[in-house]
Amino acid sequence: MKLVSIIGARPQFIKAAAVSRATVEYNKNNSDSPINVITLHTGQHYDRNMSQVFFHELDIPEPNYNLGVGSGFHGEQTGKMLQKIEAVLKKEKPDCCLVYGDTNSTVAGALAAAKLHIRVAHVEAGLRSFNRKMPEEINRVVTDHISDFLFCPTETSVDNLSKEGISAGVHHVGDVMFDCIRFYAKRAKTVEKKTLEGLDIHSGSYYLATVHRAENTNDSARLTHIFQALDEIATIDCPVVLPLHPRTVKYVQRHGLKFSDDVRVIQPVSYLEMVVLESHARLILTDSGGVQKEAYWFSVPCITLRDETEWVETVESGWNILTGADKHRIIDGVKHSYRSRHVSPESVYGNGSAANHICEILQGAASDCVR
Question: Is 145 assigned a catalytic role?
Fold first, then answer.
């Protein structure tokens, strides 16, 4: 079976790492019917700290194709991807196209494949924030409705698809990012001391924050309120470590926003360094979906700087509080962050073998087609 695996953004590199590792293991035990993976990198994230470092650190094979699309407005970026992905798919003629998550790379890959009558497999299917103003939500919905295989991380995501009339090809496999946390947490220990000492911080003595969603960065009022809250929290409590996403830097500069010395603004960090910072933080503030889950898995209280989340299980368990971008709600959320009704991650997001299930299902489907 030949797969074209389409990636382009930081979260997708992490998800692809789990699938890549599972494919290698599958092929060791099934040499008579291997899965041949062709990796296509759209170039959506092209900064070294947002791209190349992940391939090196997570042992992901170098992409067979790098389209170098870069940044741009949504329509422009997606259009360039469609054109270039289509050319690769016509050349490679894969049995299936594998896409991940909810970025422009995801929807472009799915559309290009579907129009060429190539089957589409969506890893992390069925997520819904029910906010159509989010570009990620549009990407999720469109991708799910044209996919042949829908690999869901939770029962909630299965239910979401059912409510939209999607039941064929739906598989509840668990979360591939949980696979990664379980596998790479030990490796992260090798950079733990260097990471913490390099920032002059100690376990439990700092807050960790990330801000990158368009709903926050593109809105000067929301971004200002978030950073004012971080400033106040850092001043009255403990330092805030803020790895700043390149797109956020642009808006910070545009709006002339400043930070106190207690907010330690740093460059984006690698996956292993992020694992260290997350697992040792006193509390995490974020608008990232992946970071919400990782906080949950590390049993670190989380404040989500959004009005809704697709990862509802983290909120229902009591580890995650939604505050939006309101300064007072953020500060109050930090003060009253609590731990109650915590559900074991294994029971909600699988057992760490989601990628293995995906490989087995795809190869099984390929075998059925041959017969």
Answer: no
Residues 280 and 143 in one domain: no
State mean pLDDT over 66-78.
87
Q: Are residues 134 and 274 in the same domain?
A: no
Is residue 266 predicted with pLDDT exceeding 90? yes
Which candidate in 122, 171, 212, 225 is catalytic? 212
Q: Are residues 274 and 357 in the same domain?
A: no
Q: Given pLDDT bands bounded at 50, 70 and 90, which one contains residue 334?
A: very high
Q: Is residue 78 located within the same domain as residue 195? A: no
The total number of structural domains that make up the chain: 2
Residues 72 and 221 in one domain: no
The pTM is what?
A: 0.91
Please check whether residue 325 is in contact with residue 226, taking contact to mean a CB–CB distance below 8 angstroms. Answer: yes
- CA–CA separation, 290 vs 287, rounded Å? 9
> What's the farthest any 2 CA atoms get from each other in the chain?
67
> Cα separation of 111 and 141, whole Å?
12
Mean of pLDDT values over 302-312: 96
Name the nearest CA neighbour of 109 among 3, 20, 213, 21: 3
Asked if residues 73 and 43 have their Cβ atoms less than 8 Å apart, the reply is: no
Beta bridge partners of 121: 98, 149
Structure confidence by residue, pLDDT tens digits, 101-116 = 999 999 999 999 999 9
Q: Is the pLDDT of residue 284 over 90?
A: yes
Q: Which residues pair with 322 in a beta bridge?
A: 304
| 256 and 366 both lie in a single domain | no
Tabulate helix, strand, coil % of the chain (nearest 5).
50, 15, 35
Q: Give the pLDDT confidence score for residue 72 in this predicted structure.
A: 79
Domain containing 189 equals 183-348
19 and 143 together in one domain? yes
Judge if 32 and 107 occupy the same domain: yes
Share of the chain above pLDDT 90, in %: 77
- The amino acid at residue 29 is N
Total number of residues shown for the chain: 371
Report the alpha-carbon distance of residue 127 to residue 17 in Å, rounded.
Answer: 21
Residue 368 confidence (pLDDT) above 80: no
Q: Which CATH number goes with the domain that contains 292?
A: 3.40.50.2000
